[in-house]
Each structure stands twice: as structure tokens, then as C-alpha cells.
Amino acid sequence: MKTPKIGFISLGCPKALVDSERILTKLRSEGYEIAPNYNGADMVVVNTCGFIDSAVEESLDSIGEAIAQNGKVIVTGCLGARADEILERHPQILEITGAHALEEVVAAVHKHLPPMHDPYTSLVPPQGIKLTPKHYAYLKIAEGCNHRCTFCIIPSMRGDLVSRPVNEVLLEAKRLADAGVKELLVVSQDTSAYGLDLKYQTYDWQGKEVRTRFYDMAEALGELGIWVRMHYVYPYPHVDEVVPLMAAGKILPYLDIPFQHANTRILKLMKRPAATENNLARIKAWREVCPDIILRSTFIIGFPGETEAEFQELLDFLSEAQLDRVGCFAYSPVKGAVANELPDAVPEEIKQERLARFMAHQAEISAARLKLRVGRIEQVIIDEVVEEGAVARSKADAPEIDGQVFIDGATHLKVGDLVNVEIEEVDDYDMWGRLLD
Ligand code: SF4
After folding, report:
1. 149 ligand 1 Cβ < 6 A
2. Cα separations (Å) of 187 from 296, 324, 366?
3. Angle at Cα 296 formed by Cα 291 and Cα 300, nearest 5°?
């Protein structure tokens, strides 16, 4: 009997990527083969993203391409919540499921392409199938979100917060570390809210009681002896507890903390978590405990009703906060988002003008902060070895979104190696280092 082959397209954020890995792991464990292209596949699964309009378009285009080149297509992921819209464009689709619907996707695959009888013909490694390079992996600790930020439709697509029990998360993390992963990127919609839905339930982990809670999980992950990086954390008071773990070198001194704005009125209009917290005071306190902490954030410019004075407050916040890495988007309405009903939309040209001012302002801050690192000795992880040398990342840089460290001539290094370099040069985003080891 011919082995059934599945083609797979994974779009969207790291949380969607983890869903893709789970689906592939399950299918592989049932004997399906993963085809590298459409032609070699018996069927294609497209894991879509529906976060902003451009992502919706990309997803619809990918579905169209898979239909044109293969013909048998199953759609899953965030955009699956808008099945009517997908079917309007692509009525030939076989099945559609929503986000993190592992069982439904697998059932849909079984229906249209039954598995072989003997699932033991193909072995799955204990850490599952990973779509990331071997040396780092995303660790998804929860699904969904209890917040209702007015610009976001994720809760309507992914539902309320559902945390994974901490022993499950730690077991997965340990398997990944045992398989040679050197860096874990902890992701969820709101990592600081981890465990709230489980009332911080306690589980046994290697003979110790561990609560399903942000601090306890961070502390236990810190025992694995690999890099652990925290993404999508909100500035709640209990986040302060985790900073000493960073100062002690247990987890990376890195917080990805999407502030989105600095003005309290706008934050309340956005219904942001921790909208009324004094973030500048909190940042100052974190730096006192852990002077090396790296703060990455994202902001939205031109949210409905944003005045010039409120925008200026945001620029002043940037000057004070001295964030290391910042991403920024001009507000654009997302179909189905509550913010679309808000009055006083900011005209497009003003949004773009503010965006440019914001970027120029932060570029100076980021560059100045990077310059402070010249002359320092830093541990870096090797991501790639090319003809000219090695391309690495420091503890301050998450894959894909932050900067890189270039080590000229170090072609003998291997992907995943951890080495020390002296930082010799920097530009606005990247650094160049001399290998010390
Ligand atoms: S915290 Fe806000 S932006 Fe993030 S997923 Fe939840 S509702 Fe969306």
C-alpha cells in the first residue's frame, strides 16, 4: 500500500507554528509522510492566519495556490473561524476547522486520505516534529486569551485562556532539551496570565510540587540549563517576581512586553491589560534588579482618537523608557474588531507621518543602547554558518524579530554552538564580534 503523503503550509505567528508542529507530529505518528512540495502530496493542509487584513489575503492566496497545484485542500487555523469568507473565494476546499483544532484537522485528513493500517511504520522522535531549526523551539504554554483588546479578534477566534498544566509544559521542555534544543521561546497570547484558568493548580514535577503559574514555570524551566526566553508578557505586578531569575542567570534577561501605547486614555480605549500600571516605574525597578535586562515591545500608532498630544506622550515615554527593541504598526482596522466602531479615525497621512516620527525617534534610542554594548563580552548562539563566518544571536535577540551578531571567519563553528565574543562594532540593529573561545 502506498504511504499517504501530506503537504503542509504553515502561516502566521509562533503560536500557529506550534499548532502546525502538533498536527504534523500526530500525522507522522500515524504513518503519514510529509511531502516537500504540492506535486508529491496527496493532499495539502493550510494553517492560516487571520490577524490583520494582509495576513487574511496571504492565507487566501496560499489556499488558492494549493488548490491550483494540488486540488485537495484542508484549511485550519485562525482564519478558519471565518469559513464563509474562505468558501466564497475557494468553494473547492474539502474541510475547514478553526485554530488549535488538532483532533478536527486530523479527523478531516482521515476522512479524505485514510491512514495506513500500521502506524508503527514511521517513528516520531520523542520531542515531536519541529518546524524550527534544531537548536531552538517554541514552547506554547496556553491557548486563547481572557482579554478583549478592542483592536484584536484573537479571543473570538481562539477563545478564552486555556493553560496547559505545568507538568505537561515542563515535560515537553525537558524532551526538547534532551533532543539538543538550546533555546526555548515561551509563547502564548498572554504569558503573564499563565495558570489563571487552572487556579494555579499544583502538579508534581520530578518529586517537587510546582504551581501552574508564570513564576514557578519560569523557575523550573531555568533548571534545564538552556536559554529560556519569555514572549508576550504584560506588565502586571507579579511579573516583577521573575526578574530576579533573570538577574541570577536562570532565564534570559529578556522580556517581550507589548505596551502598544503610553497614554492611559488610549490604553483604556484599547482595553489593554494592565492599562493603568505605571510602566516607567516598573521598568526602572526591573533595571535596578537586573541591569542587563533587554526590553522589546510593540506599539500601535494612530489608534482612533489619538491626538497629537497623546502621540507626543508616547514619544516622551520612549525617551524615558529607553527600550532596546521596538516594533511599530500604523493602526489598521481588522474586520470584526470592536475598535472599528470608535469615533475620530486618524487620517492615513497623519498616521504615516506619526509612524515615521516614531521610528526615527526609536531608531536613535535603539542605536544608542546598542552602542553601550561595544567592548562587552557576550555569549551568543550560532544560527547559521556561511562562507564569510558565523551568524549568531546574543541573549538580547530573539530569532526572526531582533538583531544578529556576525563573527567574521568563524566557519568552524556549528549551528547551535554557544560561544563568547567581544562586541567590536554595532550599527542600528546588528553587532559584529570577535570570537574569544
Ligand atoms: S492580550 Fe489583547 S491583543 Fe493580545 S491576544 Fe489578548 S485580546 Fe488580543
Report:
1. yes
2. 14, 20, 24
3. 140
CATH number of 5-112: 3.40.50.12160
Task: Judge whether 360 and 322 are in contact, CB under 8 Å.
Answer: no
Ranges of H-type helices in 238-307: 243-247, 264-270, 279-289
Segments of 41-94 assigned E as strands: 43-48, 73-77
Ligand 1 pocket test, candidate residues 49, 100, 145, 187, most atoms within 8 A of CB = 145
pLDDT in tens, the chain (437 residues): 578 899 999 998 888 888 888 888 888 877 788 888 887 899 999 999 887 778 888 999 999 999 999 989 999 998 888 888 889 899 999 989 887 788 888 888 888 888 765 544 445 666 676 777 889 999 999 999 998 999 988 888 888 999 999 999 999 999 999 999 999 999 999 999 999 999 999 999 999 999 999 999 999 999 999 999 999 999 888 899 999 999 999 999 999 999 999 999 999 999 987 767 789 999 999 999 999 999 999 999 999 999 999 999 999 999 999 999 999 999 988 888 899 889 999 999 999 999 999 999 999 999 999 999 999 999 999 999 999 999 999 999 999 889 999 999 999 999 999 999 999 999 988 999 999 96
CATH superfamily assigned to domain 136-372: tm_1862 like domain (3.80.30.20)
Ligand-binding annotation for 290, yes or no, is no
Measured from the CB, is residue 99 less than 6 Å from ligand 1? no
Could you name the CATH architecture of 376-435? Beta Barrel (2.40)
Please state the pTM of the whole predicted model.
0.78
Name beta bridge partners: 45.
8, 74
